[in-house]
Structures are given as C-alpha cells and as structure tokens.
Hints:
The protein has 13 helices and no strands. It is an all-alpha fold. The radius of gyration is 35 Å and the shape is flat.
Amino acid sequence: MDKERKIKPWVTDLVVSIIATTISIVLTFGTTMLIDRNRQIKERRLTALMVMSNIETFARSMESKAEELARKDSVAQWLLSLPVSDIERISPSVFNQPLIEVFYLSEFHYDKTAEAIFSSNLDTWKNLGNFQFIDNVGSIFSSMHWIEDYWNRQVELQTEEYNQVRKSPDDYPGATFPAKYLSNWQIRLKLSRIHSMREWFEYNVAQFRQSNRKNMMLIGITEQEVMDFTDERMTEFDTGEEPVKMSDFTIPAPKKDSLRATLPYAIQVDSLLRKAGQ
Length: 278
C-alpha cells in the first residue's frame, strides 16, 4: 500500500515542469505588458509634447506677425495723417517704399505634421486617454485653421486692391499714384485697421498660450518641457559643415560661338543662312 501511495518521480517532474512553464509564461506576458505599457506612456508624452509644441510654435508665429504689424501700423498712421493735397505736391517716389511696406502682407502658414498625426491615428487617441485634452486640442487646431485661412484671405484682398489701382489708374481720383491710394476710402479703411489686426494677433497669442497651459496640466507635462521641446525643434542642427550656397553651383553660361559649333540645330541654321546668302 505504502509503495502504491508514493508519488512517482515522473509525476513530480511533470508538476515542477508545469509550474515552471506557468511562471515563465506569466513572467513573459507580464514583462511584455510592462514594456508595452512603458512604450505607450512614452508615445503618449511624445505625442502630447509634439501637439503642444505645435501650438506654441503657432503662437510664436502670430507674435512675429504682431511685431510686423506694429511697424506697419506706425507707417500707416503717418500716411493717413498727411493731407492728400500735400501728397500730390511731393514727388511720388517719396511714397513708394512706405506704400509698399504697408500694403505688402505675407501669408501665414504653419506646420501641420503634429496635427495630422494627432488627428489620423486612432491608437494615439486611445493612448492619450484624456478626452478633455483631446477635445481642447481639437478646438485649438480648428481655431488655427480659421486664423490661417482668414489672414491669407485678407492678404489676397489687399494685394488685389493694390494691384487694381495700378491696372486702372483712371478709375481713381488723384494726380499721382500715392494720392490715388490715400484718397480712396476703402484703402484708408484697410490702413486704419492694421492697428486692430495687430491687437487681434496679440489677443490670440495670449488665448492659445492660456489654452496650452490648461492642456499641460491635464496631461501632466510642465510648461518648461514644452518650451524646451519647441526650442529644440526650431534650432537648426549644426552638422559642422559649411552651409550650402547658390554661388557654389554657379556655372558659366556656354559661349555663343561654342553653341554655334556644337549644337546640331545651330549648325543646320548656319548652313541654311550661308546658302541663302550665296
């Protein structure tokens, strides 16, 4: 009886093997899950950093635009203060540069790479896990699109108005082009609104940064991290190489005599011309 009740060695080995295999599987899956979890956390932080850095970059671009408009506003206010009768008595060339300065507006575009990653990857949305953050960022991106489209349309309209006076000067009163521009009420209104456009940009800069700070709190990333990440993205990487210059690729134009002697077309034309002259 005692001999029959004794556990056989192979049974013990089997049990030990099963336990070892189970522990191995648990450790493997546990380690894999832990690695995957850490990867998701890193991806989540990187995605959030990219998104908030993109917003900060946009705010900096608007800040630069506001500074540009501050200069244009000073010139515009000076032009508007001049009586049109005085403008007509002065050489038009005096007003060429200031008029170009106030009328020339550059378009406003921003890098949409981070937005595309954020908007198109469903896994990214799941990894972020904070729907308030996602909702906030979606609203900010919509505002960024609207500002870009609105400003670029204003640039287009102002350029059209400037060119229209040049194309059809007889349709506008005034003895000189500067007088024609500065006696037109629509153009004067545009120039007077540069001031409010500057204020509008500065207001939006403050709004975007305030919203971004809320996002930082929601996702657990500091403002300094976002600023450092943005600075790093905007800093040009130094490879130690000399910058590429257009002058390095300047090639002398072929001499006309050599073309006449080598191009089949030129040889044929020369032959025909000689025959015609005989």
